[in-house]
Design goal:
Largest sheet of chain A: 5 strands, mixed
Distance between the termini of chain B: 43 Å
Helix content of chain B: 25-40%
Strand order of the largest sheet of chain A: 4-5-7-6-13
Strand order of the largest sheet of chain B: 2-1-3-4-6-5-7
Structural class of chain B: alpha/beta
Number of helices of chain B: 9
Number of domains of chain B: 1
Distance between the termini of chain A: 57 Å
Shape of chain A: globular
Mean pLDDT of chain A: 95
Low-confidence stretches of chain A: none
CATH superfamily of chain B: Thiamin diphosphate (ThDP)-binding fold, Pyr/PP domains
Radius of gyration of chain B: 17 Å
Number of strands of chain A: 15
Number of domains of chain A: 2
CATH class of the largest domain in chain A: Alpha Beta
Structural class of chain A: alpha/beta
Order of helices and strands of chain B: HEEHEHHEHHEHEHHE
Oligomer: heterodimer
Chain lengths: 376, 250
């Protein structure tokens, strides 16, 4: 694939597979170290970078397990390098131990999950079954990842390039939650130059060697606080970071939100693209449906969903997911009883069609016809 | 008259938290002396383990990262791959390295990662309160083998130095002890050699140090030294198992 690259960054669009585009985007963001363990449906990222990293003088290493990989990332970012890894659902479960330590030690790592169906071995087809895992925890302890969910290859490229400076801004791991469809499909893309960034000075915290920063004071990267007062203070400091994310870095896309909709969809990633087609089709049939598409799943677009659900005429909100209903819990939390909240979706690698979504939307609206919605 | 003995510069003034008779303090000191003598303080990064020695960073004044249980070799790998100029060492106990982290140490050794591991083997989990380790001796009583280690149920103790020496990738693997002064001199030489191999970019190096844990063994320090010498040293034989020059030694 190397001959296929958009070398100048300012050329026109090129056609690239999602997984390979993700690898190239990281290199262009200035991340020159990658550690990973093979797993379907994301192995093409590793295969791409196994060739690409040596070209740019970077590090490529296939670890012995996802557990080990998460700590290779810890070691590399802990001494001030940019590093990232990619995996898929079962692999992310194994990395979750390391992710918890990385969050505890406040290190800016980037993890990319090209989700497949679960639980257990599940399947290898696209799924959104790891919503809880990425947004609510995954590993142990009081922490959050910043979670971004691309809805296509171009957006995946941009989110990968944004993830490194965001991880560094908060000194917190960032998760990009894609799925097998985004990893496997080819789309025309461009690599934006303006997202290429330089890592800020790490000398205040990184264990990069005292000589490197011309200091006589050692730096310690750690997550152990045996004194409960100290750990409480540390937990509150982490909480303050998550609150700052909610203020400064919520991202979402409203769709058809200025129309007189009676039903509001909340959907993200691959699923949201199918929803857009369904919304366009329904509009042609004279039926208005609005949508909020969270681009960040943590921080979640709480106010945007609440406001959209509160709009006069809105009778029901439906969370459409490729899972059995995970994000719907956050949607309910944001709607705060303004109107009924429903779930629709398919999973296991099945992706609802626009026709199925339209059918579900119509029947849910009928079911909630008595709802006064926001007027209540 | 010049001073002939002093505290290593890289050691802090902090009193250690170790139990009476524990050998961690001695081993810390040997590592500190080697760091001083090689003049590498400013480019050394240590990996602190989960276990009694987690607070090693309070005593040795270099950059440190604190590991999860068993994962120190993976972290050291991450550091050395992105910063080959840094001198990296892991300091790990036997529950850490020989049990939960055995995959990480085998693969790091097999890849020939250019860092140094100080592997402290005292035949027991120390910090969690004296449970059975993979290195616990046959018949040895611990809190989770109250009737003595039954090899027919849990197998024989793992000889890490010998196990790692079966790897074909060049490396420096040695077993030492610090339970008597005559051994301490040899142990320090081995630790220095291990760091030197790393500085020369030659190979992975591991120094297993047979140690005592009087508290969890339920012995006085003097009894513990005697037990270690009689029971452990006849099973965990001292000496180089492998050097990068002679592919396989003893």
């Amino acid at each position: 694939m190397t001959e296929n690259r958009n070398e100048g960054g300012k050329m026109g669009k090129i056609l690239m597979k999602g997984n390979e585009a993700i690898g190239e985007a990281a290199v262009r963001a200035g991340c020159l170290s990658y550690f990973a363990y093979p797993i379907t449906p994301q192995s093409e990222v590793s295969e791409y970078l196994a060739r690409r990293m040596p070209e740019v003088g970077g590090v490529f290493l296939q670890g012995e397990s996802e557990v080990a990989v998460s700590y290779m990332i810890f070691g590399a970012v802990g001494c001030g390098a940019r590093a990232f890894t990619t995996s898929s659902s079962p692999g992310i479960s194994l990395m979750s131990e390391g992710i918890s330590y990385i969050a505890g030690a406040e290190l800016p790592a980037v993890f990319i999950n090209i989700q497949r169906g679960g639980p257990g071995l599940g399947g290898i087809l696209p799924s959104q079954g790891d919503y809880f895992q990425s947004t609510k925890g995954g590993g142990h302890g009081d922490y959050h990842l910043m979670v971004m969910a691309p809805a296509g290859v171009q957006e995946a490229v941009e989110m990968v390039m944004m993830a490194f400076p965001l991880a560094e801004k908060y000194r917190n791991p960032v998760m990009i939650l894609g799925d097998g469809l985004i990893g496997q499909m080819m789309e025309p893309i461009t690599f934006p130059d303006h997202l290429r960034t330089e890592p800020p000075n790490k000398d205040e915290w990184a264990s990069n060697g005292m000589d490197t920063r011309k200091s006589s004071k050692p730096n310690l990267v750690k997550s152990l606080f045996l004194d409960p007062k100290e750990l409480n203070a540390h937990n509150l400091l982490l909480k303050a970071k998550y609150e700052r994310m909610k203020k400064e870095d919520v991202r979402y896309e409203p769709y058809n939100i200025d129309s007189d909709y009676q039903i509001l969809i909340v959907s993200y990633g691959t699923m949201s693209r199918v929803c857009k087609t369904a919304i366009d089709n329904m509009k042609e049939d004279g039926m208005e449906v609005g949508m909020i598409r969270p681009q960040t799943l943590f921080p979640f677009p709480e106010a945007a969903i609440h406001d959209a659900a509160s709009k006069a005429g809105c009778r029901v909100v439906v969370s459409i997911e490729m899972s059995v209903g995970q994000m719907v819990e956050d949607v309910e939390r944001c709607v705060r009883g303004k109107c009924p909240v429903e779930w629709y979706g398919k999973c296991g690698g099945e992706v609802p069609t626009p026709e199925e979504i339209a059918g579900a939307v119509r029947s849910l609206l009928e079911k909630n016809a008595g709802s006064f919605g926001a007027k209540y | 008259m010049g001073r002939i003995f002093r505290k290593p510069e890289v050691m802090t003034d902090e009193p250690t938290h170790y139990c009476p008779g524990c050998t961690h303090g001695l081993i810390h000191r040997l590592v500190a002396e080697v760091i001083d003598e090689l003049g590498i303080r400013g480019r050394t990064v240590g990996i602190a383990p989960v276990g009694c020695a987690v607070f090693i960073y309070n005593y040795i004044s270099v950059d440190f990262q604190e590991s999860a249980h068993g994962r120190a070799p993976a972290m050291a790998t991450g550091i050395k791959r992105v910063r080959p100029d840094l001198i990296v060492f892991t300091y790990q106990g036997d529950g850490d390295l020989a049990s939960i982290g055995i995959a990480e140490i085998i693969h790091a050794a097999n890849r020939g990662e250019k860092f140094t591991t100080i592997f402290v083997n005292n035949a027991v989990y120390g910090m969690t309160g004296g449970q059975m380790a993979p290195t616990t001796m046959p018949g040895q009583r611990t809190t989770t083998s109250p009737f003595g280690r039954k090899v027919e149920e849990v197998g024989m103790p793992i000889k890490i130095a010998e196990l790692l020496s079966t790897i074909e990738t060049p490396g420096y693997i040695t077993r030492q002890t610090v339970i008597k002064p005559k051994y301490i001199v040899q142990a320090k030489k081995a630790i220095k050699k291990a760091f030197k191999y790393q500085m020369e970019g030659r190979c992975f190096s591991l120094v297993e140090v047979v140690s005592i844990c009087p508290t969890n063994w339920g012995l006085t320090p003097v009894e513990a030294v005697k037990w270690a010498e009689e029971t452990m040293l006849s099973y965990y034989k001292l000496g180089d198992c492998k050097t990068p020059d002679s592919h396989k030694g003893v």
